[in-house]
Amino acid sequence: MSSSEKQQEARASLVAVAQEPGAPKPDPILVAVGVQRQFGGLTAVDVSRFELQRGTITALIGPNGAGKTTFFNLLTGFDKPNEGEWTFDGRSLAGMPAYKVARTGMVRTFQLTKALSKMTVMQNMLLGAPNQKGENFFRGLIPGIWSGQEKANRERAEELLRHFKLDAKADDFAGSLSGGQRKLLEMARALMVQPELVMLDEPMAGVNPALKQSLLDHIRELREAGMTVLFVEHDMDMVRDVSDWVVVMAQGEIVAEGTPREVMQQQAVIDAYLGEHHSVSLDSGSGS
Amino acid sequence: MDIGLILNQSITQGLGVQAVIFALAAIGLNVHFGYTGLLNFGQAAFLAVAAYGLGVTVATLGFSLWVGLIVGVLAAVVLALILGIPTLRLRADYLAIVTIATAEIVRLVVRSVTLRDIFGGSDGINRFADEFYALNPFSSGLALGPLTFSRNDLFVVVVGWLLVLLSCLIVFLAMRSPWGRVLKGIREDEEAVRSLGKNVYSYKMQALVVGGVLGCLGGFVFAISSQSVQPDNYGTDLTFFAWAAMILGGAARVFGPVLGSILFWFLLVFINVTLTEAVRVGYITFIDGTQVGQIQFWILGLTLMLLMIFRPQGILGDKRELAFDVK
Ligand SMILES: Nc1ncnc2c1ncn2[C@@H]1O[C@H](COP(=O)(O)OP(=O)(O)O)[C@@H](O)[C@H]1O
Ligand SMILES: [Mg+2]
Q1: Using CA atoms, how far apart are residues B262 and B20, in angstroms rounded to an integer?
Q2: Cβ <8 Å between A99 and B198
Q3: Which domain holds residue B73?
Q4: Structural domains in chain A?
Q5: How far apart are alpha carbons A154 and A160 in whole angstroms?
Q6: Which residues have C-beta within 8 Å of that of residue A220, sequence separation ≥ 6?
Q7: Using one digit for the tens of pLDDT, what is the confidence trace for A145-165?
Q8: Which amino acids bring their CB within 6 angstroms of ligand 1?
Q9: What is the ipTM of this complex?
Q10: Cut 0.90: pTM above it
């Protein structure tokens, strides 16, 4: 993979950033401060500071139960924190319902894929389009009001589906897709919302190796298109391969941050992982 | 056995005012459950508040029938809001519990002795639809093949089926629109729809209102056809017959509830008259005529169970879109 201009830009923007938890970024799109979530006695998330650099691909890693999904849920309004503030593009999001968060341009996918399996692939895509006139009950009754916009949305959906190699499946029920294709559909559907920040929770889980490579390419293309990507992943080779920056969570806290090469060598990261499962080799050379 | 009599009565009922009332109730339920996945077990309440809204406005307060109809629709909207506001943010089963309880509360309030001056207690309200019958354009009743309707019944039935068609048209247009697409998304996975920037709570509320208003038209037909509203007509069996009609015809299909209601009333009367005839002629000797009323429901229930086993999506339903898991 030759490094693109956007990749160089993204990496250059992070050169001067300290390799430590909560490090300030030169142009953060997302800033979270003091975000805490407790489940009974368990503190699932306790992030004192987190900044996400605009235009980068940032990986969020950490052992199972580290609080990555919960952190995603909190940031996107799917769960409420006990405490904490966070801003997206300078706008405070704390207490905002999930649907409004999505409308600000911060769209997430789910660890357990939520393809709407009893709707067609195309209907899934169209559901993602924002500001639809026909989504008002009364205007919906009169096709003339919304059919033009629908046609434009359909064209955009077709283009995305072609790109994700799902165009042949457009009229199939999403339930007939393979696990990997569902992940692709969920990602394509999120793009219908025209987000600025895409948050992917384990986009590669359960995807076969051939499709994994194309998923990685798609993630790179999001950055090329000017979006910021935050994604959760377990596979270190994948993380090394695609990300500009890595954030490590353990037991609810961010314990390390840095470039992929350097973060893997930090003692806190090795501890976090070895505490979980000894078989993980963090320092396995250059990967792919 | 008089086969002609059996068929005449069954067909007349299958196309008669009962079928209209339950078709409208089931069309509303279809918006709730078939398309949005809302478990409304209190559809009877929507018919009741519309019928009483009409009856009270005309008979008790002395306004015209048309004002009464508007009051009835508003009452259905208010009921939907009352049911939806506390429950639609919670898990689906909460709506089920609240609707079934609310429907009973509505019935008990209108039949209460204390409020007898307004709602007429267990006698209900009578004779408030003369204005409607004054508009009857038919000069005589109908006797066409198996169908026989009196002049007034004919008017009610014709207007009723027109309302059914209009409701089907609204459901058809709404469900092929982006609005309907959001509802179908919610039926399957609320969180996915939320993550795409849709206000799920608001859409569920809209679905509850739309289905309630469509169902409430059944309450108007019920009230006007008999020139009376009586509390015990709006019990839980009305709700469950409407559910049966929707599931029989096929949920999430525009004409499913209509076909289901026609078949439901056809079958119910067919079983009843056939058994009655068989007892009369002496083909069946182990029951007497007075037991037929109960046994018809056993047989109908058995028929519905067989349908659920062999065709869980209902007659018109699409198994890939919505089917009931009977395992
Ligand atoms: N709804 C919940 N109720 C109780 N505990 C939860 C809930 N969601 C997550 N947890 C707990 O919070 C911790 C973090 O979970 P999660 O965010 O799913 O971790 P990760 O995504 O990093 O694997 C785990 O210990 C998990 O058991
Ligand atoms: Mg997780």
Answers
A1: 8
A2: yes
A3: 3-325
A4: 3-115+195-274 (3.40.50.300), 116-176 (no CATH)
A5: 10
A6: A1, A4, A7, A57, A242
A7: 999 999 999 999 999 999 999
A8: A 39, 42, 44, 62, 64-70
A9: 0.92
A10: yes
